[in-house]
């Protein structure tokens, strides 16, 4: 199977604190891959390095055959790597539609070279971004809420808006940092359905998640971190029954009945 993402001995040091140590893993294409582990084990830091938000201290990251560990974040986004944030990064005083359009403009040529573009091109582009935003809103089931201010929406809708904004950038590989956190059970079911629909569009998913029902039900492979180091990798069944993972993180509540 083809590898879409690979890290090689990646390390992140924050002035003495080793947040990620010597992390190597691979993610195969057409997969929902999870990264799990206790609080502070380096999961968000790993996504931050892959998406270029933080430079790696050492090691290398590849997207397909392309090394991305030396690239700035906008260039990585343009290759097709998108993300959502654990603490939402929305413009809360703007509407849902406006938030999506900000995401869309980042991918347009004039988003970067605005001063070189004439007004006619700019207007045409605006229309394209708006059309796209409408499609995405429809896809995430939020078309009716497009003119609502984000701050007036329940948390579950805000998280869905964050997913919508990430989809505006046409990712091929999407990183979701704790998509189910803070959602009530019905919001969680809805979010899982939209994630599966997103996967069916051809977008590979990499998620960090503490909700094990979500992880064990939708992910085909799981990587486990503890104190910044990988302690296990495998299928949901392998991970549920891995003694080190049980000790460090899961406890034995997910363990299969031993024959
Ligand atoms: N910008 C930063 N500067 C300094 N230390 C940081 C920074 N970001 C993260 N850390 C530290 O790195 C370690 C790993 O943090 P990280 O946010 O990656 O954990 P996590 O696995 O995502 O945890 P959680 O499940 O709580 O979200 C922690 O000790 C954290 O305090
Ligand atoms: Mg985190």
From TrEMBL:
All copies of domain ABC transporter, residue ranges: 5-252
> What keyword terms does UniProt attach to this protein?
ATP-binding, Nucleotide-binding, Transport
Source organism phylogeny: Bacteria, Bacillati, Bacillota, Clostridia, Eubacteriales
Q: Does the keyword Acetylation apply?
A: no
Can you tell which superkingdom this protein's organism belongs to? Bacteria
Give the organism, scientific name. Caproiciproducens faecalis
This chain belongs to the protein called ABC transporter ATP-binding protein
Identify the CDD domains for this entry: ABC_Mj1267_LivG_branched (cd03219)
Where are the bilayer-spanning segments?
none
Check the record and name the SUPFAM superfamilies matching this protein.
P-loop containing nucleoside triphosphate hydrolases
One GO MF term attached to the UniProt entry: ATP binding
Q: Does the keyword Cell inner membrane apply?
A: no
């Amino acid at each position: 199977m083809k590898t879409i993402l690979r890290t090689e001995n990646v390390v992140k040091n924050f002035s003495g604190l080793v947040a990620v140590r010597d992390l190597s893993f691979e993610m195969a294409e057409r997969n929902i891959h999870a990264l799990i582990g206790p609080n502070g084990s380096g999961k968000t830091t790993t996504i931050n390095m892959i998406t270029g938000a933080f430079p790696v201290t050492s090691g290398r990251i590849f997207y397909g055959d392309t090394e991305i560990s030396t690239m700035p974040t906008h260039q990585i986004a343009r290759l097709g790597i998108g993300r959502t944030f654990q603490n939402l990064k929305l413009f809360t005083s703007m509407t849902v539609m406006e938030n999506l359009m900000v995401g869309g403009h980042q991918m347009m040529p004039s988003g970067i070279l605005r001063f070189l573009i004439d007004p006619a091109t700019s207007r045409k582009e605006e229309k394209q971004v708006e059309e796209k935003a409408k499609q995405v809103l429809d896809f995430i089931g939020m078309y009716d809420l497009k003119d609502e201010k984000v701050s007036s929406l329940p948390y579950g809708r805000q998280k869905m808006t964050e997913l919508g904004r990430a989809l505006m950038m046409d990712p091929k590989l999407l990183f979701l940092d704790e998509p189910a956190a803070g959602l009530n059970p019905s919001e969680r079911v809805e979010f899982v359905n939209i994630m599966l629909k997103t996967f069916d569009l051809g977008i590979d998913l990499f998620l960090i998640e503490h909700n094990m029902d979500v992880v064990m039900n939708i992910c085909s492979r799981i990587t486990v971190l503890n104190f910044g180091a990988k302690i296990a990798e495998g299928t949901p069944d392998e991970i549920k029954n891995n003694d080190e993972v049980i000790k460090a993180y899961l406890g034995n509540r997910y363990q299969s009945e031993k024959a």
